[in-house]
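Form 7-S
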Amino acid sequence: MNVARTCSTFPESGGTCAGLSRYPNATIAEYGSISGADAMAKEIYARGPISCGIDAAPILTYHGGVAKMAGEYVDHVVSVVGWGNDPVDGPYWMVRNSWGEYWGLMGYIKVAKGNNALHLEEQCSWAVPANFTTENFPCDEDGGNCPV
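Output:
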């Protein structure tokens, strides 16, 4: 409890979780917010995946196809990694969820592009990574035990 963990898979399916004693540290060089299909596509093309808010309730049982639901409100964050075109359902966003590869299409969902399905095109952010290291130690809240 109250320890960051990493898990091999779902514990209910026989996987194991282990507590972390050291934490990676990532810093960000630049970041910003965008909305709308055109701005999203330009950002993904320029710098890679973006994070966007989505209404998760309608996709809890998603198993395939292009999701076109309207949704009610944003209550979850996903990574929009690209886009494609379905011959029947038209253009879509390729979206990576954090629920594991047992959900959806191996952890991904196709969301209709251009009609703000599930509120996906409203609240998006991008970031440019700066430094990343795995040689960090957890510090107490007051910083008293942080390495110098």
